[in-house]
Amino acid sequence: MSLYFDVLTIFPQIILSYLQESILKRALDRGIVDVKVYNLRDYTMDKHKNVDDYPYGGGPGMVMKVEPFYRAIKDIKADGIERTVVMLTPQGRTFNQAIAKELAFCNKRLLLLCGRYEGIDERVRDLLVDDEISIGDYVLTGGELPALVMIDSMTRLMPDALGDEGSALQDSFSTGILDFPHYTRPAEFMGLKVPDVLISGNHKAIEMWRKEEALKRTLERRPDLIQKHKGALP
Ligand code: 9D3
User: Counting Cβ atoms within 10 Å, is residue 42 exposed (0-12), middle (13-18) or buried (19+)?
Assistant: First the structure.
């Protein structure tokens, strides 16, 4: 098994439905990736299965309680296998392709904690968490989509996971620049023609055109990428 995730959430079905419907299913079926989903509510002790409570100090919204996380993580780790506990939170380091690679190839299982409500009791972070990840500066309703984003991006790094191997290692954020424009039939649509060079059959010229277009677009739209990935450019 090359990739192994445990996901702890109060909405297991969000994670399970996406995995069952997407291209990730192929990787799961082939045993390249394994995902186990745990319902945080199963680790509550009160009769109402409460996972949240009012915030100390007052204010709007609810805060996720520490005990269910504590019991769940203890139970999941009871198999003795080491895991990196990753909390999905707006306060985390911003996920990117470098972090995807770092975590995918660190050879440790990831236990992903998904929060909901206004936040998670700070003692979860203090006692139980090794790493904190955000997927970007916009407000979501919880950590489930971010967990799926991580699983998706890391899975496609695994050889043979998607079937069309190779493409994962040479696509835009791996080489550090944006992709070139793509075309398929018809050769003309609503007056817009496919560039002649792509129909020419001249493979050297096609390669040059693609490199040039990719670079042009990157300079126009994402000059920051050129700075960041200077070493990787031709
Ligand atoms: C509007 C509520 N915010 C007050 C300043 C705090 C807040 C609490 C909980 C904002 C978002 C959330 C739920 N989001 C996540 O759990 C989350 C998230 C995100 O919202 N954006 C990017 N990455 C992530 S990872 C987890």
Answer: middle
